Amino acid sequence: MTPSAYFATMVIDLNPNVARLGPLLITWHGVFSVIGIIAAARVGQYLLAGEGISGERVYDMAVWMVVAGIVGARLLYVWENYHLFVGAWQKVVFLNEGGISQWGGIFGGLLGGLAWSLRNGIDYRKILDAVGPANALGFAIGRIGDVINGEHHAIPSNLPFAVEYVNPETLGQPGRSVHLEVGYELVWNLLVFGVAVLTYQRLKLRLPTGVVGLLWLAVYAFGRFWLSFLREDSLLYGLRQAQWASLAMILAAGVLSAVWLAWERRGRSDTELPAPPTAAQG
């Protein structure tokens, strides 16, 4: 389908930069990333209140998760794009200029939450349950910044609609009508968040602790796997890095859920009392 065949092409003429304060460049990507983190922490606080975990402790945990998530997100991005840093390795710490891997942030944040839980004697599975819905909202808000800056390049659109970035400062693909892939991810995350919140208490009553959060992380990963086919990211053994990470998340969620389900069933069977003898047996 050629650009002239589109029913609608949305032109994005937005400067990805908000302001420069000396050496500090403030970008919309960074602004919405911060808002997303705050929103995710607030959702986590609300959900974990029912587990007896105070808001102060949730925000303390959030700091651990954010720091570990930022480190993981940046390191994975640098590993994927090391050629951009050869000869200028000091740029690795220039987070304000963009360049992070969302999957690196997810896995890093989960490890940060695990470390906090072990340090504070909190059941990590309770944290996971809240992480599923909370992160979905945080990811959705963060994608608003990606829609503005056009950082994640997509393939030409084969749908009746497309998007074109035209701002001189854009990180997008000027002159090309492409899929708004990050916009699709934004919608997917909002759907995951909405369903996760509406079914949270019901699933918590039916599934072992931790499995609810793993379920929604896996659902997010499922959508991300298929949407990544619309990206122009480099391939590794036929798939994009984000797709391999999505499969890793789905596999990890499946294995851990199976282990916890088996553990709960075994615990129930061990605590069951033998039936009293009947009159005939007596």
TrEMBL record:
Keywords: Cell membrane, Membrane, Transferase, Transmembrane, Transmembrane helix. It is an enzyme of class 2 (transferase). A 1,2-diacyl-sn-glycero-3-phospho-(1'-sn-glycerol) binds at residue 143. GO terms for biological process: lipoprotein biosynthetic process. One of its GO terms (molecular function) is phosphatidylglycerol-prolipoprotein diacylglyceryl transferase activity. Its EC number is 2.5.1.145. The keyword Transmembrane applies. Pathway: Protein modification; lipoprotein biosynthesis (diacylglyceryl transfer). It is found in: Cell membrane. The chain crosses the membrane at residues 26-49, 61-79, 99-118, 186-203, 209-230, 242-263. It is a multi-pass membrane protein. PANTHER family: PHOSPHATIDYLGLYCEROL--PROLIPOPROTEIN DIACYLGLYCERYL TRANSFERASE (PTHR30589:SF0), PROLIPOPROTEIN DIACYLGLYCERYL TRANSFERASE (PTHR30589). Belongs to the Lgt family. This is Phosphatidylglycerol--prolipoprotein diacylglyceryl transferase. It comes from Candidatus Dormiibacter inghamiae. The lineage of its organism: Bacteria, Bacillati, Candidatus Dormiibacterota, Candidatus Dormibacteria, Candidatus Dormibacterales.
